[in-house]
Amino acid sequence: MKLTTAFTYFPWLAKEIVVASVQTMAMLFNPRRTYDPVVVKVPLRLKQDSEVALFALSITMTPGTLTCTTAADDHGRYFLVHAVQGQDIAALADSFADMEERINPDIRAKARPEVSVLPEYQRPFHSSQEGA
Length: 132
What we know:
Number of strands: 4
Radius of gyration: 16 Å
Strand content: 15-25%
Structural class: alpha+beta
Oligomer: single chain
């Protein structure tokens, strides 16, 4: 990460952590809350190990998301990410792509990869009221 990028990235990340904290707390204290947890595969455009590590840490530091693992397949490296609120996969994909592009603005020229829900992942519940 370039030093000039770091001066804009870390304040932005701090703001995102605060915003996500407020949203997560509001969700937790809402008596009619619904959960739609999901595990998604997030292909990586970042190549440098230090940038990949920063991306993984940034996702995990943001409340409501957790980088579970880094792996690779024939298409390249990817993360498996758990998100508490997974009802809008497109919004999740946009937020991950935005974060990745803020870490390394040079990748903006590359097409944003498709984020997909793991087919074997079964959502365990959708509401705190379920089964009550």
